């Protein structure tokens, strides 16, 4: 029995308050959330319920007014801005609804931008960006400018940028909100593939049809969790390395096949037997040749009879004329 995936994100009694006095309003109110490694969480709810605020706090782009936040078991409430930036660069990838690509930079440099803050040399940055763009089938457009791409292609570039530093957590704020249904499907399939590799994904959406991709669906209302439904047990969540383990199990199963099972060799022998049986039911070449000769002789005899009858009629007609 595999062990349950460990907790990677934990929020305890987190509140986010805007304004003071009579103008005070809560974006989040005593919010508790525990996220296991490998979960794909969809967060839904009406506009203004605190979904984006929650993502900003998890992504260390905003700070909670009260409460505690633990990232991978470490408290991040009082760390410096430099350390927060390092966490974002190494552990968190963020996908925005509006893409947020820099318009005067080519695609390859947009994708490599997070590695600038990680201290990578330019040659190494561009090599990493080239490799990940190939994975998203955008290598031939890596020197295009953002305005030369479609909306779906720009969002794929944004996803590639979020993955360039190999983060364990992906935060997506309505990544399909500005896309048509076909482009949305492509983006969701890309996210499904990322999740299958063991990444943790937290995604905000207004589209209920996308919840089929999730392992957990949270509905928010007025800064609190209204419903929280898990569709996949913690023990069944993907973890890094799972695809390799699955392939090993398949190979092992094939090696353990017994001679009595339907192996490819048995299928070949059965096919050969069926071919032999079918060929035994076919007439031989000699019989076919004899039949053809008999038909030719019969046609020749009929032709001679017709010529003889015509000759006889012609001679009778001549005698009448005389």
Could you say which overall geometry the principal axes of the C-alpha atoms support?
Answer: globular
CATH superfamily of the largest domain: P-loop containing nucleotide triphosphate hydrolases
The main β sheet shows up as:
6 strands, mixed
Share of β-strand residues: 15-25%
Tally of DSSP helical segments: 9
Could you tell me the radius of gyration in angstroms?
37 Å
Strand order of the largest sheet: 6-7-8-3-9-10
Could you please say which CATH topology of the largest domain applies here?
Answer: Rossmann fold
Series of secondary-structure elements, N-terminal to C-terminal: EEEHEEHEHHHEHEEEHHH
Q: What's the overall average pLDDT, rounded?
A: 79
Name of the CATH first level of the largest domain: Alpha Beta
Distance between the termini: 117 Å
- The parts where pLDDT drops under 50 for at least 5 residues are 243-289
Give the % helix.
40-55%
Return the structural class. alpha/beta
Number of domains: 2
Q: What would CATH call the architecture of the largest domain?
A: 3-Layer(aba) Sandwich
Number of strands: 10
């Amino acid at each position: 029995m595999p062990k349950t995936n460990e907790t990677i994100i934990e929020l305890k009694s987190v509140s986010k308050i805007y304004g003071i006095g009579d103008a005070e309003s809560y974006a989040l109110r005593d919010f508790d959330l525990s996220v296991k490694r490998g979960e794909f969480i969809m967060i839904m709810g009406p506009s203004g319920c605190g979904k984006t605020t929650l993502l900003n706090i998890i992504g260390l782009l905003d700070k909670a007014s009260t409460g505690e936040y633990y990232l991978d078991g470490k408290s991040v409430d009082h760390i410096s801005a430099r350390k927060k930036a390092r966490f974002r660069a190494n552990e968190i990838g963020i996908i925005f609804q509006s893409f947020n690509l820099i318009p005067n930079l080519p695609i390859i440099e947009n994708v490599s931008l997070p590695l600038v803050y990680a201290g990578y040399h330019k040659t190494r940055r561009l090599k990493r960006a080239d490799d990940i763009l190939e994975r998203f089938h955008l290598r031939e457009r890596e020197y295009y400018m953002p305005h030369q791409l479609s909306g779906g292609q720009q969002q794929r570039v944004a996803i590639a940028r979020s993955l360039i530093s190999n983060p364990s957590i992906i935060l997506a704020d309505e990544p399909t909100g500005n896309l048509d249904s076909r482009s949305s499907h492509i983006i969701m399939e890309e996210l499904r593939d990322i999740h299958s590799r063991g990444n943790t994904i937290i995604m905000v959406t207004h589209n209920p049809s996308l919840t089929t991709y999730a392992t957990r669906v949270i509905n928010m209302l007025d800064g609190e969790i209204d419903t929280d439904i898990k569709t996949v047990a913690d023990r069944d969540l993907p973890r890094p390395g799972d695809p390799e383990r699955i392939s090993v199990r398949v190979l092992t199963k094939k090696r353990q096949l017994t001679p009595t099972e339907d192996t490819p060799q048995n299928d070949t022998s059965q096919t050969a037997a069926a071919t032999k049986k079918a060929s035994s039911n076919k007439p031989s070449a000699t019989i076919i040749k004899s039949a053809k000769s008999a038909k030719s002789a019969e046609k020749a005899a009929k032709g001679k009879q017709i010529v003889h009858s015509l000759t006889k009629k012609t001679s009778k007609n001549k005698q009448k004329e005389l």
